[in-house]
Write a structure and sequence with these properties.
The chain has about 325 residues and is mainly α. It contains twelve helices and no strands.
């Protein structure tokens, strides 16, 4: 009885292990390729009006006065660990919820973009959206503390501000506001960004993959040609999905950055709606979409690398 139970669980456990490992690799690819752009975005979002003429001016000044590694890559360790972990959890929860939804509606069989294996049916986009939203809830609780550290280290003008690195940021946050408030500052804004954003991200990717599968003809194609077309599809669809998501959620991200970098009791230490009102009074749409250029420039290559890594490893692991 006990042995048969283990055998029954092994396929799901094996699939979950593959999804988690592929998600880890996807997260590392995303963070490493997109981090310099993210630093510029955070600097633009947190800087007072007129500090920079634009994204390029910001990047040039950061490199000139702080150096490449200590400027554009400052604070990489925390988001690299956090990004690897959260992306692994994101894909794991997404894939498991999608599998549960598929089992409740057996006529819908997942296609290649959802979990790496092609099937005779097509994944309903409603299932994809629900699975993405649920995964967004899970990853928000990981992203909250890691992005708090990342944002505070990125806006520091000198490495001397946090000589103790990420742990010093966390220690200061806890000392100032306690364990709960200190580590969850901006969590509500993170949830507001990730739940709808994640639903859009996965739905846009799967919709684009389904559209490409309908137009591509791989019948009789060599394995190498099929792999190349799959890689190209992952790059194009992944980059487009990431770009769309960030274009939609950027005003939430701007408010989250302001909240997470605000000192307790400061004018910016307010909720999401108040943040938007203050941003609108400060500069209208320009303030609400602060950092738009580096965000979109980063979004395509970073998410293309993420989906390429995910698809490649899922195929490699079978």
């Amino acid at each position: 009885m006990h042995g048969s139970s283990q055998e029954a669980l092994s396929p799901a456990a094996s699939a979950a292990t593959r999804e988690l490992f592929a998600g880890f690799a996807a997260g590392a690819a995303n963070v490493t390729s997109g981090y310099p752009f993210d630093t510029v975005k955070v600097r633009l979002q947190s800087a007072p009006p007129g500090a920079y003429r634009g994204a390029l001016d910001c990047a040039v000044k950061v490199v000139r006065y702080e150096g490449l590694r200590r400027g554009l890559f400052r604070g990489l360790s925390s988001p690299l660990v956090g990004g690897t972990l959260e992306t692994g959890v994101n894909y794991l929860v997404y894939s498991r919820v999608l599998a549960m939804l598929a089992s409740s509606a057996p006529s819908a069989v997942a296609g290649g973009g959802a979990g790496g294996a092609a099937g005779p049916g097509v994944t309903p986009l409603s299932h994809v959206a629900v699975a993405g939203a649920v995964a967004g809830v899970a990853l928000s609780f990981i992203l909250g503390p890691t992005e708090l550290v990342k944002c505070r280290m990125q806006v520091a003008r000198s490495s001397a501000r946090y000589p103790g690195g990420p742990f010093q940021v966390l220690q200061e946050a806890v000392a100032a506001e306690g364990w709960v408030r200190g580590l969850t500052r901006g969590l509500g804004a993170t949830l507001a960004r990730e739940v709808p954003g994640n639903a859009v991200f996965f739905t846009a990717y799967e919709a684009a993959r389904q559209a490409l599968r309908q137009t591509s003809d791989l019948q009789g194609a060599t394995t190498r040609r099929a792999d190349l077309q799959g890689a190209l599809a992952a790059i194009l669809c992944g980059g487009a999905a990431g770009t769309l998501m960030w274009a939609l959620v950027l005003p939430i991200d701007v408010a989250k950055t302001r909240l997470q970098t605000a000192s307790p009791g400061s004018p910016w230490d307010v909720g999401l709606m108040q943040q938007w009102a203050m941003l609108w009074r400060e500069g209208g749409l320009r303030s609400l979409y602060a950092g738009l250029t580096p965000t979109l420039v980063r979004a395509f290559p970073a998410n293309a690398c993420q989906w390429l890594a995910w698809e490649a490893i899922m195929r490699g692991l079978g």
